[in-house]
Design goal:
By secondary structure, the protein is of the alpha+beta class. It contains 2 helices and 6 strands; from the N terminus they run E-E-E-E-E-E-H-H. Strands 4-3-2-1-6-5 form a 6-stranded mixed β-sheet.
């Protein structure tokens, strides 16, 4: 996967431009990780901030939209093309200001870009 595609929804994901995903459940390949707290796009790097609730000790994680393999508007579910452990191992998201930090976003993009390739299939 080219690096820039980590910051773009896959054509087959079912995501509609401008759709508000706030509040959608977020599901990795092996289970739920939380819900979309907010969406952001800084420096041409669109991403989701996911509230993990108690799963990762109440912290949030930042997920580039290229990791989204499917969006189901009816069930308000976003499915990711990675595992819970891979999300948990991503560069730690500590403060909202990091969504505006080009170096932090690049490190997150690099981490997800280096994950083993998977077959992408829509929901």
């Amino acid at each position: 996967m080219p690096m820039e595609s980590i910051w773009s929804y896959a054509a087959e994901s079912g995501h509609l431009a401008g759709a508000d995903l706030t509040g959608c459940d977020v599901v990795a390949e092996d289970g739920t990780i939380g819900h979309v707290d907010r969406q952001a796009e800084h420096f041409g790097m669109p991403h989701l901030v996911v509230d993990t609730g108690v799963w990762v000790f109440g912290r949030s994680v930042l997920v580039p939209v290229g990791v989204v393999r499917g969006v189901d508007a009816e069930t308000r579910t976003v499915k990711l093309n990675c595992t819970r452990a891979e999300v948990k191992a991503a560069p730690r998201f500590r403060t909202d200001s990091e969504t505006m930090d080009r170096e932090y976003l690049a490190s997150v993009g690099d981490y997800y870009h280096r994950l083993p390739p998977r077959e992408s299939s829509a929901i």
